[in-house]
Amino acid sequence: GAGVSQSPSNKVTEKGKDVELRCDPISGHTALYWYRQRLGQGLEFLIYFQGNSAPDKSGLPSDRFSAERTGESVSTLTIQRTQQEDSAVYLCASSLEPGINQPQHFGDGTRLSIL
Amino acid sequence: QQQVKQSPQSLIVQKGGIPIINCAYENTAFDYFPWYQQFPGKGPALLIAIRPDVSEKKEGRFTISFNKSAKQFSLHIMDSQPGDSATYFCAAKDTSYGKLTFGQGTILTVHP
């Protein structure tokens, strides 16, 4: 598996519960991104990690959302006290570095449904 | 200023037709413009990308046209096939930052 891997592929949970989404980037990719895609919409940027630099959290919609990344490997996106408006597909992408002409490679996402 | 506006929302063409999808942006700091193709249940996949110092780029049946003064760019799909039926997203990036700013997407249907 050379691509970006996300788990779980689907998650159904009750309003108010916490959820944790996982992303395994392509090996060697130093940059990692999380995006949210609501039904029929484009992708909204959430957060971006680059190496050991402080992450760019400017897209996180509220303090219920947080993300971590261990070195240049796995990342987890955590949503606390989930709300129905959090229902969406959460996509992770990675790239060799965030510079010019480095394409972002996407996983297939986690489809999150809040009941 | 961070928005990328994409049109049309949906597009239906016959096989062999040339669908055209348009995008416009405001932020003059954007300097990288990729197009992504997304099939249902899958993540977006990069199709083709352009920098603003080039007015046109072609890869196979896909062509990007770029008009820097108008801050617009478009995707043309030559000799479209039913297998091209998918959602297409334009995006833009200021390479000083990591994130992509996406358009709202165009659902393309190519009838046999």
Compute the average pLDDT of chain A. 92
Count of alpha and pi helical runs of chain B: 0
Q: What is the CA–CA distance across the termini of chain B?
A: 40 Å
Broad structural category of chain B: mainly beta
* Oligomeric form: heterodimer
Radius of gyration of chain B: 13 Å
User: H/E element string of chain B?
Assistant: EEEEEEEEEEE
Low-confidence stretches of chain A: none
Which structural class fits the helix and strand makeup of chain A?
mainly beta
- CATH homology-level superfamily of chain B: Immunoglobulins
Choose one word for the global shape of chain A.
Answer: globular
Number of strands of chain A: 10
CATH superfamily of the domain at 21-99 in chain A: Immunoglobulins
Largest sheet of chain A: 6 strands, mixed
Tell me the β content of chain A.
over 45%
Fraction of residues of chain A in helices? under 10%
Let me know the average pLDDT of chain B.
94
What does this structure look like?
The complex is a heterodimer of chains A (115) and B (112). Chain A has 115 residues and is mainly beta. Chain A has a domain of 79 residues: Immunoglobulin-like, CATH 2.60.40.10. In chain A, strands 2, 4, 5, 8, 9 and 10 form a six-stranded mixed sheet that branches. With 112 residues, chain B is an all-beta fold. Chain B has a single domain, classed as Immunoglobulins (Immunoglobulin-like), CATH 2.60.40. In chain B, 0% of the residues lie in helices and 52% in strands. In chain B, the strands form two sheets. In chain B, strands 2, 4, 5, 9, 10 and 11 form a six-stranded mixed sheet that branches. Chain B has a five-stranded antiparallel sheet with strand order 1-3-8-7-6, with no helix packed on it. Chain B starts with a strand and ends with a strand. The model of chain B has no long low-confidence stretch (mean pLDDT 94). At the A-B interface, strand 4, strand 5, strand 8 and strand 9 of A face strand 5 and strand 10 of B.
